[in-house]
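Appendix B. Chain record.
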Amino acid sequence: MTTNKKIRVCVAGATGWAGSELCRGIVLTDDLELVSAVSRTNANKDLNAVLNLSHDKNIPIFGTIEEALSVPCDVLVDYTKPDIAKHQVLTAIHQGVHVVVGTSGLSDADYEEINSIAQEKKQAVLAVGNFAISVVLLNKFAEMAAKYMPNWEIIDYASDRKIDSPSGSTLELANRLSKVRESVKTVAIEDTKGVKETRGADINGMQVHAVRLPGFVIALETIFGLEDEKLTIKHEAGNSAKPYVQGALLAIRKAGTFTGLKRGLDCVMEFND
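Structure tokens predicted for this chain:
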């Protein structure tokens, strides 16, 4: 992408909890332009009126991604649901549009397919399970810990209304830790006496537990253990979507600076090891 013009953005799921806050953030920037939106429940309306945005141009809301992409854009941000996200991502790639994925629930197999097509079409897909800087740091610290502490498990907390399990943040963390090493299990899961399912689900060689209860928004915890010591790294989120805006804006700006799929916001951030 060039730096002498605004990056044109379409947000799918624009009137949802996270999408609406991102839209408010985009219209306040100087280098990004929100040109269209996808929301089945608000199709054919002006996003300015729906979200009460202080924007001087009409931002049309469409009911489908195909309609929305009729308005030229550079980056699609997908904040929808896992049952439609993959279709929307692939549709955008085929239309020559880069994608930032903020939707939870896509599998490693889904991302393998997305990466293959993105490479073929020379488009960028940045999949971020969580845009909060505290989650970026959790991922980095957990990867560091996994090099020295071979036993760990992940606990994923969310509201009872969250339909996907585990969360996208959890899947991203499990994917990253699996590239460091496989978590050691002193007792193999198949040798567990009693109800084996209570030991959690095996994801990429580690045990993952999902808690879905009222009172939780989003939290992610990795517990590492050695004999006579343990390390807990935990992220907790409040009710506001504001912590995710700056990370999402960064992701939009970085989309198009690479080809294929990258997973995790830190992939486009600078860290000094």
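Further analysis of this model is presented in Appendix C.
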